[in-house]
């Protein structure tokens, strides 16, 4: 199993992501929960990279940007621009939905977690497909670097290349694949991003 290859720090990020998901009442663990769990870390390679790139002290800004994306139904600005190109005004749709159903109606706080067949909560919270993709991408990142284990730095690098909201929020704060690999390895991302 891939989780056995995770370092203590990477496991802590995954476990922290589950806790963030539970706290927000989300039905699944999403990429944004992984990003927040990375911001919680101290003394790890991933936290070093985030601090070196100036993100460690800007958690409020990251949380604000993630909340705005949730308000848009989890769509990135690139998604909104694509819809605009088709003549669909996402901000107008959000406004109308919120007018009818209340502010944040498109947010991802749907449900109180995974439930078993008999309706009881289960301990295991499912990972959204995008979050599963981050885990798989982190394995590819570690493999490309010839690292035996997957660290939280590989999770961070995976978040920077996957596309979507987490990648967009990181990039808006100056955290890109190139900047992370430059800080960690000094090579500007010479290994393939996948």
TrEMBL record:
Biological process (GO), any one: proteolysis
One Pfam match: Clp_N
UniProt-annotated stretches for the region Disordered: 101-130
MF (Gene Ontology): peptidase activity
Record field: compositional bias (Gly residues): 104-116
Ranges of residues in domain Clp R: 3-194
Matching Gene3D superfamilies: Clp, N-terminal domain
InterPro entries: Clp_N_dom_sf, Clp_R_N
Entry keywords, A to Z: Hydrolase, Protease, Repeat
Protein name (database record): Clp protease N-terminal domain-containing protein
């Amino acid at each position: 199993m891939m989780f056995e290859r995770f370092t203590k720090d990477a496991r802590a990020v995954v476990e922290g992501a589950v806790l963030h998901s539970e706290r927000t009442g989300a039905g699944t663990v999403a990429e944004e929960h992984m990003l927040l769990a990375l911001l919680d870390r101290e003394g790890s390679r991933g936290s070093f990279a985030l601090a070196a790139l100036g993100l460690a002290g800007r958690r409020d800004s990251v949380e604000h940007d993630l909340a705005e994306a949730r308000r848009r139904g989890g769509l990135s600005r690139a998604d909104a621009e694509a819809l605009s190109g088709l003549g669909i005004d996402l901000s107008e749709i959000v406004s109308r939905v919120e007018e009818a159903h209340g502010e944040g109606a498109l947010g991802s706080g749907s449900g109180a977690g995974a439930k078993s067949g008999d309706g009881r909560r289960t301990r295991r919270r499912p990972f959204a497909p995008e979050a599963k993709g981050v885990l798989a991408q982190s394995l590819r990142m570690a493999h490309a670097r010839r690292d035996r284990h997957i660290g939280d730095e590989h999770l961070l690098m995976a978040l920077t290349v996957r596309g979507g909201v987490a990648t967009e929020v990181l990039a808006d704060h100056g955290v890109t694949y190139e900047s992370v690999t430059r800080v960690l390895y000094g090579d500007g991302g010479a290994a393939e991003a996948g």
